Amino acid sequence: MSEAAAALTPASGIPLPVVTELSRPYWDGLAEGELRFQRCAACGNAWLPAREECPACLADAWAWEASGGGGRVISWVIYRQGVHPAFADRVPYNVAVVELDEGPRLITSIDAPEDALAIEQPVRLVPWSEQGVHLARFAPVS
Ligand SMILES: [Zn+2]
């Protein structure tokens, strides 16, 4: 485990994200209730998570943009066993892939019962805070 990761692991044992200078705008945005992603200045591709170069054309000219918060469910799984001990008391819970209206996809969780999840289900950003870290979760849009 890196020094940075150890510094961010709370007493609860829940693994927390390691914030780097590259990813800091993403985490700062969530703290402000905004989901930010990167867009390539050369080809217009948009992506998450943070990286130095555009995954489509490898250009290193890009800028952060704020998502409008809308998206759709691409896929999900339901965890029925606590794979990590810190999450054992949370089962069952879902881990989902959401595609933002602007194009980037992220791994997240949908704040909804299992029977409300569906492929292409429209969802909306729900800022979520845990252990002092702000996370992007989503809720179905009816
Ligand atoms: Zn590009």
Written overview of the protein:
The protein is mainly beta and 142 residues long. It has 2 helices and 8 strands; from the N terminus they run ααββββββββ. Bound molecules: zinc ion (ZN). Zinc ion (ZN) binds next to loops.
Largest sheet: 5 strands, antiparallel
Number of strands: 8
- Amino- and carboxy-terminal Cα gap: 42 Å
* Bound ligands, named by name, code or SMILES: zinc ion
Please tell me how large the radius of gyration is: 16 Å
- Count up the domains: 1
Low-confidence stretches: 1-8
Q: Share of helix among residues?
A: under 10%
Our estimate of the beta-strand percent is 35-45%
Question: Within the largest sheet, what's the order of strands?
Answer: 6-5-4-7-8
Structural class comes to mainly beta
Annotate the secondary structure layout.
Elements: H1 3-8, H2 24-31, E1 36-40, E2 46-47, E3 62-66, E4 70-79, E5 93-100, E6 105-108, E7 122-130, E8 133-140
Salient structural properties:
36% strand, disordered N terminus, single chain, globular, 3-stranded antiparallel beta sheet, binds zinc ion, mainly beta, 5-stranded antiparallel beta sheet, 142 residues
Could you give a short description of this structure?
The protein contains two helices and eight strands. The chain is mainly β and 142 residues long. The chain has a five-stranded antiparallel beta sheet, covered by helices on one side. A three-stranded antiparallel beta sheet has the order 2-1-3.
